[in-house]
């Protein structure tokens, strides 16, 4: 690395900042009194409530059902009473939520199927759909849809994404270290459902512990292979992972299925195990709560619907004043201004940043250092797109590939002149989309 | 507890991602290049004496002053704190022979900063490398004063440079040069007994600068390595595969200094990864052509300036193929 011939690389070496939680076992978070379930906690159509205000619900009971092909079921993560269905703060601002008052009895609903029942491939796929499983790495795309590719796009490769490339996040890492067996079971289910002959588990090389544990866990499973990858952001981005492991490139605007590949996140795979082997719908997940302002950074088993404020208390509050609260990691996460926002299926990490960290230096003129080109994982020319946008030349921005941008944030991160490159590219994208709709 | 949480949340910033930024700033990058130039500066002081410091100081001082005065006069943001003007001045100071009159450094700085850099809009907007343009301009218009090459003390005498003997269609290295012997390879490498521009005398110092720049991640090895190896290859072929002829060319004149500090300039060079390769290759071919065909040594400055002019075209044509696409953007939209 010291003597690079080429400064072009597959991403940026961002700060990892995982040391506070990477060796910390996952703890069970206490459960709050009120839990909020946004109906749109996945990509696609919001789910439709199946309960009404005043209804009593059990833990694991369906409270909102999928509405359309790309949508997902939502289950109660506690037992108690539905007290409200109205707009509440969510990751995306405000949206309809079902609020449940916990009775702290954890009365369980019937499992999704009777234990001991022999399940067909189709039944397993149906269970994954029924359990409300979506991509838990943050994309929240319904997993069952990924697993049912259209004819002609037969899947031959399954990639389990354990490349947790965002700073601070260690939830997938801990899941691999502590729940390897369940994870392997989940992979076996996915391999049967697809069906594929080979599955890769992709892990970044900085996660030594999970690599070691997973290597041990797969010894008797010839069809599963560990691929240790360079620690570089965004190694875990779906498109880049596919290219790194298979050499294939997802076509512009396409899906992994177009190149016969399915990528499933580690947490998603574990949820598949719980649904298909134990009959449990998706009601909890592991979330890392970290960042310098947090007093006790932790990896927590969190019931879906738990407000972030509750988790801050769970981590003994703040040791310094936070400047930003982020749903997700610092590179791609969404900034939040309300601690009322609940944990959803896609909440792998909640990051708090100190004030000193978040204020970019003043913007200065571009010095043409070409670092934004060097770190772009899909080989765009961010500064050229940004210039085109600032000059009002939307045509040029489109020709330069603005629509291909995966929003990883590397260009803005690396820029020594602190030019808001990603912001400009995003604006260019909106302008291109708006223009297409006009036509 | 929740009360304090609520209070703190009132002050949360909600600007979009990314939320963290690399600590690297443009001014830091410029400082690093100046630090890398300290190696050739020390070598120059060793060979040519303390007057080199005066040259460098004069270059930096006048360049910064011209930028300041211009921006003050125009009423625009003063950018001298980004170290870019200082870097240009340092390069100019090191780009001239020790006999260069003091005013030539100031004329060079004025040309570099006012005409080449500020006229097109300041930092990052200049198509041509200001320091290179200044040295070429000085060479063209002030030749009797500027190219009065001298060998280092104790006897400051005008001498010819090795390049005047191996250029001009010569295909071999002569044994003698003027009254003395042709310098040996080690002398050329270390800079012993050589005339020329003060900064480019010691190739060892230039290589140390290169190691520093690459180690700090300011530049990759790509441009210097392609420039020098392609140039060496052409000279090998032209010199009937004489190693001495080839290596003498590589170690003479501004080639290494230009390949490390000038062709790698951000603003005037190519932006795209493949464009940089083409740019470096073009510099190599032009430098070789100028040295072989024309009756004057050097050629590095002119070669780099010509390639500076082509850089935008090269970038347009050689922009990388985007992930998932079949062709480069230039070919997709033609």
Automatic annotation (TrEMBL), chain A:
Organism of derivation: Amphibacillus marinus
Subunit organization: The complex is composed of six subunits: RnfA, RnfB, RnfC, RnfD, RnfE and RnfG.
One biological process term in Gene Ontology: electron transport chain
Bias type Basic and acidic residues, positions: 7-22
Major localisation: membrane
InterPro entries: 4Fe4S_Fe-S-bd, 4Fe4S_Fe_S_CS, Ion_transpt_RnfC/RsxC, Nuo51_FMN-bd, Nuo51_FMN-bd_sf, RnfC_N, Soluble_ligand-bd
Cofactor note: Binds 2 [4Fe-4S] clusters per subunit.
Protein name: Ion-translocating oxidoreductase complex subunit C
Pfam families: Complex1_51K (PF01512), Fer4_10 (PF13237), RnfC_N (PF13375), SLBB (PF10531)
Region annotated Disordered, chain positions: 1-22
Co-factor requirement: [4Fe-4S] cluster
UniProt membrane topology term: Peripheral membrane protein
Ranges for domain 4Fe-4S ferredoxin-type: 396-425
Subcellular location: Cell membrane
PANTHER family registered for this protein in UniProt: ION-TRANSLOCATING OXIDOREDUCTASE COMPLEX SUBUNIT C (PTHR43034:SF2)
List of residues binding [4Fe-4S] cluster 2: 376, 405, 408, 411
Keywords assigned: 4Fe-4S, Cell membrane, Electron transport, Iron, Iron-sulfur, Membrane, Metal-binding, Repeat, Translocase, Transport
NCBIfam families: PRK05035.1, rnfC
EC number: 7.-.-.-
Residues engaged in binding [4Fe-4S] cluster 1: 366, 369, 372, 415
Automatic annotation (TrEMBL), chain B:
Protein's GO biological process: electron transport chain; transmembrane transport
Protein name: Electron transport complex protein RnfD
Keywords annotated in UniProt: Electron transport, Flavoprotein, FMN, Membrane, Phosphoprotein, Translocase, Transmembrane, Transmembrane helix, Transport
GO cellular component terms, A-Z: plasma membrane
Keyword Phosphoprotein: yes
Residue ranges crossing the lipid bilayer per the database entry: 28-46, 52-70, 91-116, 221-239, 245-266, 300-318
InterPro entries: NqrB/RnfD, RnfD_bac
PANTHER family: ELECTRON TRANSPORT COMPLEX PROTEIN RNFD, ION-TRANSLOCATING OXIDOREDUCTASE COMPLEX SUBUNIT D
């Amino acid at each position: 690395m010291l003597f690079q011939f080429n400064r072009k690389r597959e991403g940026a070496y961002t700060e990892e900042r995982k040391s506070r939680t990477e060796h910390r076992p996952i703890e069970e978070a206490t459960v709050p009194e009120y839990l909020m379930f946004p109906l749109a906690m996945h990509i696609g159509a919001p789910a439709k409530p199946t309960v009404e205000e005043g209804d009593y619900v059990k833990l694991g009971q369906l409270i909102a059902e999928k509405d359309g092909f790309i949508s997902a079921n939502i289950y109660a993560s506690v037992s108690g009473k539905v007290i409200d269905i109205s707009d509440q703060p969510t990751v995306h601002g405000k949206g309809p939520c079902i609020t449940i008052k916990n009775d702290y009895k954890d009365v369980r609903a019937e499992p999704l199927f009777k234990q001991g029942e022999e399940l067909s491939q189709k039944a397993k796929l149906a269970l994954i759909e029924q359990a409300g499983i979506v991509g838990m790495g943050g994309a929240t795309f319904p997993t069952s849809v990924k697993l049912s590719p259209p004819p002609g796009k037969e899947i031959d490769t399954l990639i389990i994404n354990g490349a947790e490339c965002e700073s601070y996040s260690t939830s997938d890492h801990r899941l691999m270290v502590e729940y390897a067996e369940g994870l392997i079971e989940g992979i076996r289910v996915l391999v049967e459902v697809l069906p594929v002959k080979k599955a890769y588990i992709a892990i970044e090389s900085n996660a030594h512990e999970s690599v070691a544990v997973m290597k041990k866990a797969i010894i008797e499973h010839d069809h599963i292979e560990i691929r240790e990858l360079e620690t570089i952001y965004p190694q875990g981005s779906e498109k880049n992972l596919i290219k790194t492991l298979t050499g294939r490139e997802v076509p512009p605007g396409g899906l992994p299925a177009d190149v016969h590949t399915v990528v499933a996140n580690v947490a998603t795979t574990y949820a598949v195990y719980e649904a298909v082997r134990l009959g449990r719908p998706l009601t909890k997940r592991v979330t890392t709560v970290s960042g310098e302002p947090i007093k006790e950074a932790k990896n927590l088993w969190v019931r879906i619907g738990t407000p972030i404020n509750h988790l801050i208390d769970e981590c003994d509050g703040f040791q310094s004043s936070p400047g930003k609260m982020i749903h997700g990691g610092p590179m791609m996460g969404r900034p939040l201004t309300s601690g009322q926002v609940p944990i959803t299926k896609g909440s792998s990490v909640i990051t708090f940043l100190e004030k000193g960290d978040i204020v970019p230096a003043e913007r200065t003129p571009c010095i043409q250092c070409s670092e934004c080109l060097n770190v772009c994982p899909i080989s765009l020319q961010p500064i050229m797109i940004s210039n085109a946008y600032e000059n009002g030349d939307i045509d040029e921005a489109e020709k330069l590939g603005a629509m291909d941008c995966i929003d990883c944030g590397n260009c803005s991160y690396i820029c020594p002149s602190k030019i808001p490159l990603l912001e400009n590219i995003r604006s260019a994208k909106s302008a291109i989309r708006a223009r297409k709709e006009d036509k | 507890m929740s009360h304090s949480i609520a209070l703190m949340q009132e002050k949360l910033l909600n600007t979009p991602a990314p939320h963290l930024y690399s600590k690297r700033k443009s001014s830091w990058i410029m400082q690093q290049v100046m630090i890398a130039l300290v190696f050739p500066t020390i070598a120059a002081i060793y060979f040519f004496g303390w007057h080199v410091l005066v040259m460098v100081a004069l270059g930096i001082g006048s360049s910064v002053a011209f930028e300041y005065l211009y921006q003050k006069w125009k009423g625009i943001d003063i950018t001298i704190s980004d170290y870019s003007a200082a870097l240009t001045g340092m390069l100019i100071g090191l780009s001239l022979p020790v006999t260069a009159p003091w005013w030539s450094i100031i004329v060079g700085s004025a040309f570099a900063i006012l005409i080449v850099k500020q006229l097109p809009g300041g930092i990052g907007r200049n198509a041509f490398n200001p320091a290179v343009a200044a040295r070429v301009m000085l060479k063209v218009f002030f030749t009797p004063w500027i190219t009065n090459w001298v060998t280092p003390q104790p006897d400051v005498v005008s001498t010819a440079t090795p390049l005047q003997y191996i250029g001009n269609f010569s295909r071999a290295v002569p044994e003698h040069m003027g009254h003395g012997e042709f310098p040996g390879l080690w002398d050329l490498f270390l800079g012993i007994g050589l005339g020329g521009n003060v900064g480019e005398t010691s190739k060892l110092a230039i290589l140390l600068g290169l190691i520093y720049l690459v180690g700090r991640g300011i530049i990759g090895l790509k441009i210097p390595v392609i420039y020098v190896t392609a140039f060496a290859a052409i000279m090998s072929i032209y010199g009937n595969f004489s190693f001495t002829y080839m290596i003498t060319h590589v170690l003479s004149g501004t080639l290494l200094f230009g390949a490390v500090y000038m062709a790698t300039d951000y603003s005037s060079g190519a932006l795209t990864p493949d464009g940089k390769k083409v740019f470096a290759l073009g510099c190599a071919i032009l430098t070789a052509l100028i040295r072989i065909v024309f009756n004057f040594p050097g050629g590095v400055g002119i070669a780099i300036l010509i390639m500076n002019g082509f850089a935008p075209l090269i970038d347009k044509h050689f922009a990388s193929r985007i992930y998932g696409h079949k062709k480069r953007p230039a070919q997709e939209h033609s």
